[in-house]
């Protein structure tokens, strides 16, 4: 499969500027259509498969440079959420911006931060994101890993809260006993 080098910019709170890395991604992801992530399931799956190892490679550095406290409750953070915003439709200079968000171990806090991210993405999408090239706005794609196994490819959001994702019905059923406690609190 042909690949193209692409810039990845990670926004970490304690970094003086964005962390910038270059990684090769499948060339078919460099696409002039900003709607491809929303309309083409194969594109989405390829994108998630491409960014997963990149996220894994830079996770610890992002964690060390993120906030020491949860963005929802200000308790000590235990992990970071990495949320990509694709600008791969910018044919002259394709890149992926990655938001790094610190959260604690409480599932409700992670849910609240994910809701904030979803709201921000929706707002940016409706306003055109502020960056355009030849009338095209960025493509927005939230990558949610399965809450049980962590797999990020081909996951589906919980239909009630739209904040947690699972790779299949089996893991959704397995987690329901725990998830139902906060699902109602996160429901929009």
Task: Give the helix/strand layout.
Elements: E1 3-11, E2 19-26, H1 36-39, H2 41-64, E3 79-86, E4 95-103, H3 107-127, E5 139-140, E6 156-157, E7 165-166, H4 169-186
Structure overview:
The chain is of the alpha+beta class and 188 residues long. It folds into two domains: 3-143, no CATH class; 144-188, no CATH class. Helix content is 36%, strand content 21%. The protein has helices at residues 36-39, 41-64, 107-127, 169-186; strands at 3-11, 19-26, 79-86, 95-103, 139-140, 156-157, 165-166. A five-stranded mixed beta sheet has the order 2-1-4-3-5, sandwiched between helices. It has a two-stranded antiparallel sheet with strand order 6-7. The longest helix is centred in the N-terminal third of the chain and has 24 residues, at 41-64.
User: If you average the pLDDT, what whole number results?
Assistant: 87
Rg calculated over all Cα atoms: 16 Å
Order of helices and strands: EEHHEEHEEEH
Q: Which structural class fits the helix and strand makeup?
A: alpha+beta
Major sheet: 5 strands, mixed
Large-scale geometry: globular
Number of helices: 4
Strand content: 15-25%
Number of DSSP strand runs? 7
| Weakly predicted, low-confidence segments | 129-138
Helix content: 25-40%
Give the strand line-up of the largest sheet.
2-1-4-3-5
Q: Termini, distance in Å? A: 41 Å
Whole-number tally of structural domains = 2
């Amino acid at each position: 499969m042909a690949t193209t080098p692409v810039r990845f910019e990670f926004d970490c709170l304690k970094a003086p500027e964005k962390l910038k890395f270059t990684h090769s991604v499948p060339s078919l992801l460099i696409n002039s259509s900003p709607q491809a992530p929303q309309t083409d399931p194969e594109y989405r799956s390829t994108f998630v498969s491409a960014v997963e190892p990149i996220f894994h490679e830079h996770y610890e550095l992002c964690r060390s440079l993120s906030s020491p406290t949860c963005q929802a409750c200000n308790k000590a953070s235990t992990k970071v959420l990495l949320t990509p915003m694709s600008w791969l439709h910018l044919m002259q200079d394709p890149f992926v911006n990655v938001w790094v968000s610190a959260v604690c171990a409480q599932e409700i806090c992670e849910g609240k931060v994910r809701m904030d991210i979803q709201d921000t993405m929706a707002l940016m999408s409706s306003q055109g994101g502020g960056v355009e090239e030849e009338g095209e706005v960025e493509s927005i794609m939230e990558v949610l890993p399965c809450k049980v196994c962590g797999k990020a490819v081909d996951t589906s959001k919980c239909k009630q809260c739209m904040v947690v994702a699972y790779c299949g019905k089996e893991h959704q059923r397995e987690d329901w006993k725990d998830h139902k406690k906060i699902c109602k609190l996160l429901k929009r």
